[in-house]
Amino acid sequence: RCVVACAGPYAEYGEGVLRACVECGTHYVDITAEIPWVETMLGKYGDEAAKNGVSIVNMGGYDSVPPDLSTFLAAQRMRADGETLGRFEAFIGGDSGLPTGTVNTMVAGINQVKGRVLRAVTLGACGTPPAPAPEPRAPYAPKSESSTMQRNLMWSLVPGFSSMGRQVCAPHFMAPFNVHVVHRTAAAEGYPGLQYRERLKMPCGPASLFGLLPTA
Fold first, then answer.
1. What is the DSSP string of 176-189?
2. Is the same domain home to 145 and 40?
3. Helix (H) or strand (E) holding 43
4. Domain of residue 189, residue span
């Protein structure tokens, strides 16, 4: 048995479903990209899920699976040829829309930041109340991948010209999340320390002149 949870924002709606799956011995899959929520859930329910034989699969949506699966298949192919995958670039088309849940998650995040800023400016008179003490979190990607992951994230957020793809690229909005996904799989499947770039393809023309800036 498996439950696929597709209703976000998961920080608002997700925990009850995940908890019920863990308690009932049912595998759980979602399509979230809310890394803090995922790490909190792994910290709260990860041990119990393992004890009950329950698999918790986060980031199972179309935004995250293609880059992760493509990287994994490339690593497998190179391993079969006696080589190790050292660098992978994912190029994402710019014609996809945003699901409603993703939009709601982004709006909620913006509102939280605005609330904290307002509270700081008004010395606590207005804005978001202080957050409760954070719950224990388990890192989604292993700590051994942290330094490489941060470098990959930085370069994925820089617009420019990709020498590998030979095309102008912009930052992809899912890169901050998918970098975690790719590194989690890389560490588990034997190709850690991977250089990973996730880029949004840009059309040719005057609007893409900023791409003359080379990036790593």
1. HHHHHHHHHHHHHH
2. no
3. helix 35-51
4. 65-97+138-212
Tokens at 93, concatenated:
């088309």
Both structure tokens of 103: 């939009």
Binned at pLDDT 50, 70 and 90, residue 210 comes out as: very low
Give the distance, in angstroms, between the CA of residue 141 and the centroid of all CA atoms in the same chain.
Answer: 10
Query: Roughly how many angstroms between the first and final C-alpha of the chain, as a whole number?
Result: 44
Residue 12 resides in a domain:
yes
Q: Is 206 helix (H, G, I), strand (E, B) or coil?
A: helix
pTM of the complete model beyond 0.85: no
Residues 62-67 have a mean pLDDT of 89
Quick one: pLDDT at residue 97? 55
Average of per-residue pLDDT across 131-135: 58
Q: Which helix (H) or strand (E) holds 171?
A: strand 167-171
Residue 176 forms part of a structural domain: yes
